[in-house]
What does this fold into?
Amino acid sequence: MYPGWSARKVASMDVAKSANSQRIVEFLLQLAPHASISDHVPGKIKLKVELSGLLLMGDYDLGSMARSIPGILKTDPQLLSRSVVITYDPRKLPYELWEALVQIKRDPAHAPRVRAILEKVLQQQRA
It folds into this structure.
């Protein structure tokens, strides 16, 4: 703990991080039905986002959100082609996570498994 910081302040920061993590998880699960994989190799993925997904994204600070996810190294949004290229650390964000995330579009039953993986990844950030 930093000098002058109370346990209450640290607990308050943990609650804020937890709330932010939940917001990120909810956003990604809401976005999943509006996205598809255009190209994917371990460490780099290109997601194509439907217009409905772009409208959903307008309510979020995507830059801040991307910086909050451990393992996201770089994001390159390409608005004209409605896509985003994400460079990531596959040791922190497994290849399978991305594949499962876009499967929610075809089968919403994948959502609980994806939620569990995302929560685990984001929990590592708080540890």
